[in-house]
Fold this sequence. Notes:
alpha/beta, Enzyme I, Chain A, domain 2, TIM Barrel, 8-stranded mixed sheet, 8-stranded parallel β-barrel, globular, binds phosphoenolpyruvate
Amino acid sequence: MRLVLPGHGASRGSALGRARVRLPHVLEVAEERIPADAVPAEVQRLHAAIDIVRSEMRQLRHRLHGALAQEVGEFLDLHALLLDDPELLHGLDELIHTGRYSADYALRLQRDRIASVFTGMDDAYLRSRIDDIDQVIGRIHAALHRRAADLQGVAGEILVTDNVAPAELAQLQAQGVMAVVTAGGSALSHTAILARSLHLPLVVGAAQVLQKVNDGDVLAVDGTSGMVVLEPGAEDLRTHRSRMREQVRERRQLNRLRREPTRTIDGVDIKLYANAESRADVAEAHALGAAGVGLYRTEFLFLQRNELPDEEEQFRAYRDVVLGMTGRMVTIRTLDLGADKADRTGLVMSDEPNPALGVRGVRLSLARAALFETQLRAIVRASGYGPVRILVPMVSSREEVLAVRKLLKKVIRDLLKQGHEIADTIPLGAMIEVPAAAIGLPSFIGAVDFLSIGTNDLVQYLLAADRNNDALGDLYTPLHPALLRLLHNVITIANKRRKPVAVCGEMAGDATFAPLLLALGLGEFSLHPATLLELRRAIRGCDLGALRARAPALLRARDRASIEKWMHAS
Ligand code: PEP
Ligand code: MG
């Protein structure tokens, strides 16, 4: 039966396909027996998987911060106990030895055995502990199939699940998954940013999907509106087909702008830089005529791994971006690990009560001088291959900029002494994403060569609204009078001092905000190549003089509705 399951559009594009549901920690295993001589290897395989889970849980424990550390930590400790539980382990070995079951099926049998004991309990709390058993057994099962079973993407299907990690998303796209729908998640998460970069339609926060959708059900997904339709009817199919036709028409139209300048109606050239991390992003940015790379997020080199990338590995990564841009400027942002970007790194990060306000970005870099120096060396070496700028994240004071500059000078001196070829000038810039940096800009603008406004974090910190918390709904928005005034101040000060200033948060990539940002005086945008042509089209339709004349009215707006009214009149 047709059912509409609303979520939030996180990455545009439409898809029609069969659903593949990945329930969290569910074990679907058919009975399987093994020959007697395969028993020892099977037991070994099982124990190797258990070891992997033990070490994963240890690492997870390390990475947890603050309140989460307490809450989730208790579960992890319980899970660690379960993993070492002699009854569980002995039962599993026994099933493989005597029943000659495969490790997978032994897990399933053992799970069902324990579950039957738990379900018979009177105490509701104890009964609910079966969830923990399921999670532990689910993890062991995933570890048994490290390569294949973790991700169940199938070409032409739509993956429906609770949540997806950024690393998984890239694999799903490579497997040909057409779209992803998640019950949780947020449109501002790094998963969402990556989905947009991969052109993979994504709907998040579709709360009902896991209850209502089954494997093989047909879904129509619209990553723009966030609408998911289960078993779509004739009208939905018509809408889907017309959306697809519209997408093709739009692509064709936009492609004509590949070689056109980004020039307003009244003849002012605006610079469009690209936010690019992968080789594909860099190639796309180059092909679309981006002025350069405006944001290369280096933390992605550090995530989802157990060891740190050394100087050589980092140097090669940065050099390849520089070479890919053939002489156009590449802005490399120093490490911005911490808060929501902390999944599995080679760094041991200490528990923090409030990681978003903790040791992240430049604070972490300055606290780990050796790590930072290695990164600066790698970046400076890459400057021998083409123009490079260094961008420092999460700056909140002049002292931080001065400390980075001092270390940068030392690194340059050392590299020159060691005979490396490096650029004559390497501009140093600051991200403006902490309100203190925006308000206190006059005190340190003299110490930087350029600025990049990270609206994703600036909105979060200015409005005290977590960028990843879906429950906040409209509270997290750039359409707030305080944000517009702050942006205007930063841009005005930078323009007066002739320091280049860009916006590199997601706001820059949304063409509907272009008139607003132009009115506030912005001349540079940095955005993912996926929407670069759209932004170019929007800017080519703007009359900058007229927009600037309307800026005072925009700055007088007292609420979101009046800002939106101003935008509609543009
Ligand atoms: C930002 O905060 O706007 C930004 C570009 O940085 P990130 O999204 O990587 O935190
Ligand atoms: Mg940021």
